[in-house]
């Protein structure tokens, strides 16, 4: 795995350097956050699956927040048509492997953290290995099929999964904690039709990706109330946020076995 | 009576531009009646039943509450109610 890390990091997991205290100063000032939350972020290992529109925003905010290990996964290359929304990349990056550009950008942003870049597609065969030793996964994918693979593995390994998705000027968000609330298959019981080259207004994946980072931070630190069993539907056109209560499906093929 | 139908994502493209649709319905109409009305209106273009009514992936909300927790397709509508059809999306 393409890792690059300050070698002192693991041994310094129980404290923050003066630089870290300054870097994270504004979030350390947040009521109820404190050093302990920052150390939880520092010790956290987070999988970001997909570094497109959602993954750009989510990974940037997770890196800047100080998540100790970010493992980013994507088998794509930067294309000109990505640039209306995928804010990790510049025009000069066209043709480059996304994870390489993204990893460099994230390490430049925050040299205190470790970034692992995996330029592969997530599959039923490799998903468990990718999730191994990860505390949480962030769904920044662009299709249902791979989302279900990730969901099923997260449910099986009982790892939290932050689900985000977009279409046009709309967004969706739900936090999945296996056993505590519904999973993706409870939300979407039938395999839907896949759509290629969907419309996307650039800010929407930015909004949803940022919200996914927020949910991940909340789950890691234990702060606030994550959107478990709540589907957040964002309509950018009239700027309305709808919260829809989603219940566990007792017959869910993925999560029914978890108590 | 008049209800507002709000459709999202791929359904918005089918029902037309803004996603907002005003429908006149007889008093006491249900979601099923509303779907029938849409079928009349869009009959040749789409099977509203298959797309919305019989598709468990599409959340149908009346005034923000999912009809599964009301009376399903037999949920009664009142004048001024807002009905939303929300399909899942997969973009990233």
Note down, in words, how this protein is organized.
The complex is a heterodimer of chains A (259) and B (92). Chain A has one domain (10-245): 3-Layer(aba) Sandwich (Rossmann fold). Chain A has 259 residues and is an alpha/beta fold. The radius of gyration of chain A is 18 Å and the shape is globular. Chain A is 34% helix and 17% strand. In chain A, α4 runs parallel beside α5 (98-109) and α4 (53-65) packs parallel to α9 (203-221). Mean pLDDT of chain A is 95; it is low at 1-5. The two termini of chain A are 35 Å apart. Chain A is built from 9 helices and 8 strands. Chain A has an 8-stranded mixed β-sheet with strand order 3-2-1-4-5-6-7-8, sandwiched between helices. Chain B has 92 residues and is an alpha+beta fold. Chain B has a single domain, classed as Ubiquitin-like (UB roll) (Roll), CATH 3.10.20.30. Helices cover 27% and strands 24% of the residues of chain B. Chain B has helices at residues 9-15, 31-42, 48-53, and strands at 2-7, 20-24, 59-62, 65-66, 82-86. Chain B is globular and about 40 Å long. The N and C termini of chain B lie far apart (40 Å). The model of chain B has no long low-confidence stretch (mean pLDDT 88). Chain A binds chain B through residues 50, 52-55, 140-144, 147, 164-168, 170, 172, 187-190, 192, 194-195, 198, 200, 205, 231, 233, 235, 237, 242, 244-245, and chain B through 8-10, 12, 18-19, 55-57, 59, 61, 64, 66, 69, 84, 86-92.
């Amino acid at each position: 795995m393409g890792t690059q890390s300050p070698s002192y990091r693991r041994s310094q997991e129980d404290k923050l350097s003066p630089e870290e205290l300054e870097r994270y100063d504004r979030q350390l000032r947040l009521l109820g956050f404190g050093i302990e939350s920052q150390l939880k972020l520092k010790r956290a290992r987070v999988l970001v699956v997909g570094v497109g529109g959602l993954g750009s925003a989510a990974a940037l905010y997770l890196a800047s927040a100080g998540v100790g290990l970010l493992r980013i996964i994507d088998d794509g290359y930067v294309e000109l048509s990505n640039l209306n929304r995928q804010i990790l990349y510049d025009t000069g990056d066209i043709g480059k492997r996304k994870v390489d550009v993204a990893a460099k950008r994230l390490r430049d942003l925050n040299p205190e953290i470790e970034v692992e870049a995996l330029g592969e597609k997530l599959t039923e065969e490799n998903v468990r290995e990718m999730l191994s030793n990860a505390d949480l996964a962030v769904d920044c994918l662009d299709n249902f099929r791979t989302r279900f693979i990730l969901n099923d593995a997260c449910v099986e390994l009982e790892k939290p999964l932050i689900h985000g998705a977009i279409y046009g000027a709309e967004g969706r968000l739900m936090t999945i904690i296996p056993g505590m609330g519904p999973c993706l298959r409870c939300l979407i019981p039938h395999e839907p039709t896949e759509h290629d080259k969907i419309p996307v207004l650039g800010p929407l994946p930015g909004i949803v990706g940022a919200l996914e980072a927020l949910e991940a931070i909340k789950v890691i630190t234990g702060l606030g109330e994550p959107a478990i069993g709540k589907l957040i539907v964002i309509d950018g056109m009239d700027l309305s946020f709808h919260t829809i209560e989603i219940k566990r499906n007792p017959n869910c093929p993925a999560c029914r076995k978890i108590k | 009576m008049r209800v507002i139908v709000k459709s999202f994502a791929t359904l918005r493209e089918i029902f037309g531009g803004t996603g907002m649709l005003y429908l006149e319905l007889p008093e006491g109409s249900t979601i099923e009646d509303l779907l029938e009305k849409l079928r009349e209106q869009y009959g040749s273009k789409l099977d509203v039943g298959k797309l919305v009514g019989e598709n468990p992936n599409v959340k149908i909300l009346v005034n923000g509450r999912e009809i599964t927790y009301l009376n399903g397709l037999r949920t009664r509508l009142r004048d001024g109610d807002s009905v939303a059809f929300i399909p899942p999306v997969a973009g990233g």
